[in-house]
Fold this protein.
Amino acid sequence: MTRRSVVRGAGHRLPERVVENAEFSATLDTSDAWITSRSGIERRHFAAEGECTSDLALAAARAALADAGMAPDDLDAVIVATSTPDFTFPAVATMVQAGLGMTRGFAFDMQAVCAGFVFALANADALIRGGAADRVMVIGAETFSRIMDWTDRSTCVLFGDGAGALILEAIDSADRAPRGVLATDLHSDGRQGGILHVDGGVSSTQTAGHLRMQGKEVFRHAVEKLAATATAVLRTSGVAPEELDWLVPHQANLRIITGTAAKLGLPMERVVVTVQDHGNTSAASIPLALSVAHADGRLKPGDLVLTEAIGGGLAWGSVLLRW
Ligand code: ACO
């Protein structure tokens, strides 16, 4: 018997306000045609004034609990992947714990920027396999609109706000085609920190700062590193790319998504793409895409799903799971 983490529920929350590409043309030298052709993004959601990362995370968590048919106190742990917390502390995860009315267990945040959800999922799986927890809520939640430089057309048109959540539960399985998390693969290279960073922070400037990105450099690393981590996790599991039912990639740029799918030899019909409607929601993008595809019936129990992401750090990785 092998102890594994299976997905029991998923949920998401997007802020109500939808911002179409054309809105940026009013204040910036940009166009819907440029944004769509370079990134695939057509619109994104921005949080309302006073609407914080924890509000989005809490709503996604409630939706995931409802989907799983679980109560807050069924959970042993809450992990929130975010780079845009409400406060320096307490953690968003403990705010979600309190908001759910959860009176037991533990909660903490993880920060690996756009790769945050993949890192959180791998850590939740390790907690479950190690016996520290039986049920873990894993959330990706961001309000990147709060760290945009609205005069920088090369970044501010690319990002959006939102949250997605999965609930993992321990099972003991002797199955030859087991469900749940099958393999994980994590990497980082701090030498590349400068190509995608925020120019402020608690200990340096005592400000939140703004996102800065050398887009071309990030793009170059993304295509190469995402294909490598995806290939590694498939090789570890003895799974051929053509056996995958779904690739659910980080939603940063449609050209990166199609490039990675092509390297894996996967047709786009087997790739979940939400970047056109959500923009890049950093750590929230994968759980948002998973939850959307679960809700609309694309993801079915037993489907073999590969997720992969790269972001600031640089940090990147992938998770292979059977839904
Ligand atoms: N509208 C119009 N023109 C623009 C805009 C805009 N919004 N932004 C930039 N341009 C201009 C540039 O100024 C440049 O003009 P120039 O040639 O006169 O200097 C021209 O368009 C081309 O700019 P490039 O940067 O070369 O455009 P590129 O084709 O590389 O696309 C993009 C830029 C979309 C940012 C791309 O590089 C990219 O997607 N990079 C990866 C981003 C990413 O994946 N990030 C993921 C991680 S995010 C995270 O972890 C937080």
